[in-house]
DNA sequence: TGACATTTGCGAATAATTCGCATTTACATG
DNA sequence: CATGTAAATGCGAATTATTCGCAAATGTCA
């Protein structure tokens, strides 16, 4: 799953649209996060990015995640008892379930949950900016 | 909204059922959390409890929340960017919405969301142990 | 009433994240 | 394409939330 030129210019443009500079560090971090299938925390993301580009520091990974989250390019998954994890904002929306025995994080495909939340929020006079849902579950 | 005798023996019994001792500190903390309408974090809970019973320490508030959460008496609300908040396990279930402008935490009545999650989890072969959903939204 | 495992307070330790600041750099403008 | 300037970076120190270690206290059960 290699980021092709099209997607490349995509994120570059999205950064610019958000008024952000395209730095080599941001490019490296985004590349790694895009190519990664799981949902890394900052430490993991830092290690992987480091292998590709040793100019990045942990602080920059933190700052980049924060900045990209605000720009809507990245989603932060807040965990109950572990450091936050991150994923590139998915085009096909989904939610997350943690297998509390194995620790695995499983994606729940579909938008049903998000749609229901939107409807319910609308009833209260709100529109959703973001939501994080982590379901802790055990195999039946 | 004062905890009456019935509810009192309730929580005492629930502690015992969970193999936990009924200590004065736990009693004070539970009393305060039960009487509180909002969803305090540990620091707030500690301050309020302290006014009633100056034998409690912060460490005990943390330990008590953890122990009560495991016993299913308390629910932990994991926030995006702020210390966790707590509430007594509600009998009428609900979810939570944070007004990102005011910081207010609003309860969403009803069980629709939880029910949908249960259904979806079941489809994946899981049963939910707990879930935390925090919706960040803005007034329309 | 004792015996003993549990719980507590205290302060120190840890883990995750943020900050301060001097230096570097992307990029708009001429 | 040179360059001024705000934005971004690395580094390590600081902060914040939470957990831990341990000795003393105490709830509970026999």
Describe this structure in words.
Two copies of one chain form a homodimer. Chain A has 140 residues and is α+β, with helices and mostly antiparallel strands. Chain A has two domains: 1-89, Arc Repressor Mutant, subunit A (Orthogonal Bundle); 90-140, Dna Ligase, domain 1 (2-Layer Sandwich). Helices cover 44% and strands 24% of the residues of chain A. Chain A contains five helices and five strands. Chain A has a three-stranded mixed β-sheet, with helices on one face. In chain A, a hairpin with a 5-residue loop joins strand 3 (94-99) and strand 4 (105-109). In chain A, helix 2 (24-35) crosses helix 3 and helix 3 packs across helix 4. The radius of gyration of chain A is 16 Å and the shape is globular. Chain A starts with a helix and ends with a strand. In chain A, 25% of the residues are buried. Residues 1-6 of chain A have low confidence and may be disordered. Chain A binds chain B through residues 76, 78-80, 95, 97, 99-100, 106, 108, 110, 112-113, 116-117, 120-122, 124-140, and chain B through 76, 78-80, 97, 99-100, 106, 108, 110, 112-113, 116-117, 120-122, 124-140. Strand 5 of chain A pairs antiparallel with strand 5 of chain B. The first copy, chain A, binds a DNA duplex (30 and 30 nucleotides) through residues 20-26, 41-43, 55-60, 62-63, 66-67, 83-84.
């Amino acid at each position: 799953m290699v980021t092709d030129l099209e997607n490349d210019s995509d994120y570059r443009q999205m950064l610019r649209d958000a008024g952000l500079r395209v730095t080599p560090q941001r490019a490296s971090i985004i590349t790694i996060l895009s190519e990664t299938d799981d949902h890394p925390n900052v430490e993991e993301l830092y290690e992987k990015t480091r292998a590709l580009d040793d100019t990045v520091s942990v602080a920059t990974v933190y700052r980049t995640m924060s900045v990209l989250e605000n720009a809507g390019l990245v989603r932060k998954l807040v965990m109950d008892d572990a450091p936050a994890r991150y994923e590139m904002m998915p085009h096909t929306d989904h939610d997350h379930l943690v297998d509390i025995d194995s620790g695995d994080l499983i994606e729940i495909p579909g938008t049903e949950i998000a749609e229901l939340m939107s409807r319910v929020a609308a009833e209260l006079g709100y529109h959703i900016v973001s939501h994080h849902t982590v379901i802790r579950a055990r195999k039946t």
